[in-house]
Amino acid sequence: MSLSIESTDGNVLARFEKNSKEEVRVSVDTFHGRQIINLRVFYRDGEEWKHGKQGIALSVDRFKDLADAVLQVGAYLKTHGIL
User: Fold this and answer.
1) Closest CA to 39 of 74, 75, 3, 79
2) What DSSP designation does 8 have?
3) Where are the alpha helices (DSSP H) in the chain?
4) pLDDT surpasses 80 at 5
5) CA neighbours closer than 13 Å in the CB half-sphere of residue 8
6) What per-residue string of b and e applies to 55-80 under the rule 16 or more CB within 10 Å gives b?
7) Within 10 A of 81 (CB to CB), how many other CB atoms are there?
8) Cα separations (Å) of 52 from 14, 23, 33?
9) Helix count (H) and strand count (E) of the chain?
10) How far apart, in whole angstroms, are the C-alpha atoms of residue 77 and residue 56?
11) What is the pLDDT of residue 4?
12) For burial by CB atoms within 10 Å, which of 16, 27, 53, 68 has the most?
């Protein structure tokens, strides 16, 4: 599973495969006039990608909390020999 960083695909900044039929896309979007970090699952419908209901949207002021949580998960996985 590799992470792809993008800067030219609209507001999608990163994407990675969730499984053979789905991918996770990370973007910074505007919702009701506020900037949000959007992590959304997309699925393939024929040749077209569509966004699913799964995902999370956080205010950009929660970025540090999200980054800290990801680092904690990484430390846990490393400590328990999972990574």
Assistant:
1) 3
2) S
3) 63-79
4) no
5) 0
6) eeeeeeeeeeeeeeeeeeeeeeeeee
7) 6
8) 17, 10, 22
9) 1, 5
10) 22
11) 47
12) 27
Q: What is the pTM of this model?
A: 0.80
Q: Which long-range contacts (CB under 8 A, 24 or more apart) does 52-57 make?
A: 52/22, 57/29, 57/31
SS3 78: helix
Q: What is the distance between the alpha carbons of residues 56 and 67, in angstroms, rounded to a whole number?
A: 14
Q: What does the longest C-alpha to C-alpha distance in the chain come to?
A: 43
Residue 1 has what DSSP assignment?
-
Look up residue 26 and give its two tokens: 């990370």
Report the alpha-carbon distance of residue 29 to residue 7 in Å, rounded.
14
pLDDT in tens, 8-67: 345 899 999 999 999 999 999 988 889 999 999 999 999 999 988 899 999 999 999 999
pLDDT band at 3 (very low <50, low <70, confident <90, very high): low
10 Å Cβ neighbour count for 52?
A: 11
